[in-house]
Amino acid sequence: FPIPPALPSWAVSQPTETLGTMFADLDYDIEEDKLGIPTVPGKVTLQKDAQNLIGISIGGGAQYCPCLYIVQVFDNTPAALDGTVAAGDEITGVNGRSIKGKTKVEVAKMIQEVKGEVTIHYNKLQADPKQGMSLDIVLKKVKHRLVENMSSGTADALGLSRAILCNDGLVKRLEELERTAELYKGMTEHTKNLLRAFYELSQTHRAFGDVFSVIGVREPQPAASEAFVKFADAHRSIEKFGIRLLKTIKPMLTDLNTYLNKAIPDTRLTIKKYLDVKFEYLALGEPLYRVSTGNYEYRLILRCRQEARARFSQMRKDVLEKMELLDQKHVQDIVFQLQRFVSTMSKYYNDCYAVLRDADVFPIEVDLAHTTLAYGPGQDEFTDGEDEEEEDEEDTAAGEPSRDAQGAAGPLDKGGSWCDS
Questions:
Q1: What DSSP state is assigned to residue 263?
Q2: According to the model, what pLDDT value does residue 419 have?
Q3: What DSSP string runs through 321-360?
Q4: pTM of this prediction?
Q5: pLDDT > 50? residue 16
Q6: DSSP SS3 for 255
Q7: Where is this region: Disordered (predicted)?
Q8: Which of 86, 144, 272, 407 has a CA 20 to 30 Å removed from the CA of 263?
Q9: Topology of domain 39-126, per CATH?
Q10: Cα end-to-end distance, the chain, whole Å
């Protein structure tokens, strides 16, 4: 192995304290792990509101954090309306004055001392929200999803807070939506059964009309024939009224199925998307103690939380609007459908009553044969002249022998049997 060169004489002659002092005098900046996230410098001028505020909260700063950053941008404030700065952006100066080495309280006083407009110098964090979905955030999101379906007693026993989830009115609205779906499902099934029964009833009326029409055609008496035909036409008219009722009420099923199979599932899907966004926002709303040091990882989580909050607010607004429209459609639609159903049924029964009232043809006088109705004590069965003649012929053929047979066989003896002559 080669022998290392000896130290120069000037280095050997220097005391060790001088070497330590020489390296201590060098001013080295601590290099932060930026996680590959670029920053873009810039400045923005904000007009303060009536309360002398610009609408941001700041964190970090001396003496534990190398930078001072924006924690949250409040809604409906000058900073939120401007939209330039966001959570996670680093603040580097106020009105041209550097804030390096200052605490967040000192920086807040610097901003408050400025009246009217204030200029904020910043380093814009070009963050990708997908990088903020760490394993911890995913597990917290799963925790909120599990707690959502727990009872209060179980959650309290496990030490899990359910306050923000239990007070969510949209979850209660989802339960009301399920009950409305069951109501529409029952109405649909009942309407189907009713229409099927009315169809069978109309076919029965048609059969009645056909039977009475045949009777009227075969009736020899003109008055009775006309009465039967008129009664048959009345039943056929009732059958037409039933078909018209079916055609009027059938679109009711289409409307109910549209509400049941399209509107309600679409709203249910929107609420599920809203719950997913809410769980993500709640997971990001719990800062992790090991990243709460103002580094890039925590600032990335702050940015993700702000964007998740914006999505949560927008999704909640959309769900509320959709639920409101669905409730209005439910109230208007159910009233319209029931009015159409009641008016159609009323018209059907009124028309049937009018037709049967005009077809009041009873009693009907019909010409019958003289032997059709017998009131004597010995007449137990219905007989007519032709049947009596046929029965007489059968009795004659079976009980009395012919004259030729009597002559051939000889006269009867005392016992009633035939004897030879």
A1: I
A2: 44
A3: HHHHHHHHHHHHHHHHHHHHHHHHHHHHHHHHHHHHHHT-
A4: 0.56
A5: no
A6: helix
A7: 375-421
A8: 144
A9: Pdz3 Domain (2.30.42)
A10: 171
Q: From the centroid of its chain, how far is CA 286?
A: 31
Tell me which DSSP letter residue 381 carries.
S
Residue-range domain boundaries for the chain: 39-126, 169-358
Please tell me the distance from the alpha carbon of residue 46 to that of residue 182, in angstroms, as a whole number. 54
Q: What is the pLDDT of residue 113?
A: 87
CA 178 → CA 102, 139, 171, 181, 264, distances in Å?
56, 29, 11, 5, 8
Under a CB-based contact definition with an 8 Å cutoff, are residues 170 and 316 in contact? yes
What are the pLDDT digits (tens) for 244-287?
999 988 888 888 888 888 888 888 888 888 878 887 777 776 55
Q: Which residue has the higher pLDDT, 12 or 395?
A: 395
Composition of the chain by helix, strand, coil, percent to 5: 60, 10, 30
pLDDT in tens, 328-343: 888 888 888 888 889 9
Answer yes or no: are the C-beta atoms of 79 and 46 closer than 8 Å: yes
